[in-house]
Amino acid sequence: MDKTTFINALIDSRAQWDALMSQIDEKSMLVPGVEGKWSIKDIIAHVMWCELEMVPLMQTRILAGSELWNLPQDEGNEAIYQQYRNHPLHEILAQEQEAYAQVLAAAKTLSDEELNDPHRFKDMPGDWIPWKILAGNSFTHYLDHINSIRTWLAQRL
């Protein structure tokens, strides 16, 4: 994937995310059960955590992240949930907006080669494709959660 396509996909999917979030009132964002026990606030915190993990990867070109990466996905997600579940909604919303801004800025520093060549990142396995790792923690991640949020909202009508 080339840089322009990557950045456009990031911006476009984020616009969809932001448009959906703007339609949801704060009270509804706190209702559990959107995805398992997660509320929309919990999903936003989860997305934020994933975005924040990608920023140093893009800035340093080193694959070094949280110890949570070493856990099975469900256990890691539970740890992230526990980390943020008592944070106020307004704090999560503000931090997630900042996380996205950091992801976008860092993504703009990558070259086409860096997006496609794992050898451009220290300690990245040779069979990984960098843009897919980054997308899975940003723009395709938004789309995954958008679908479940929309389904939940439709069931509430």
Q: Could you characterize what this model shows?
A:
- The chain is about 70% helix and about 0% strand.
- It is mainly α.
- The chain has one domain (about 5-155): Four Helix Bundle (Hemerythrin (Met), subunit A) (Up-down Bundle), CATH 1.20.120.
- Helix 3 (about 40-60) packs across helix 4.
- It is globular.
Put the structure in a nutshell:
With 157 residues, this protein is mainly α. Helix content is 68%, strand content 0%. The protein has a single domain, classed as Four Helix Bundle (Hemerythrin (Met), subunit A), CATH 1.20.120.
Low-confidence stretches: none
CATH class: Mainly Alpha
Strand content: under 5%
Tell the overall outline.
globular
- Total count of strands: 0
* Overall helicity: 55-70%
Number of helices: 8
- Return Rg in Å: 16 Å
Order of helices and strands: HHHHHHHH
Largest sheet: none
User: What is the rounded distance between the termini?
Assistant: 39 Å
Could you name the CATH topology?
Answer: Four Helix Bundle (Hemerythrin (Met), subunit A)
Estimate the mean pLDDT confidence: 96
CATH 2nd-level architecture: Up-down Bundle
Domain module tally:
1
Report the CATH superfamily. Answer: dinb family like domain
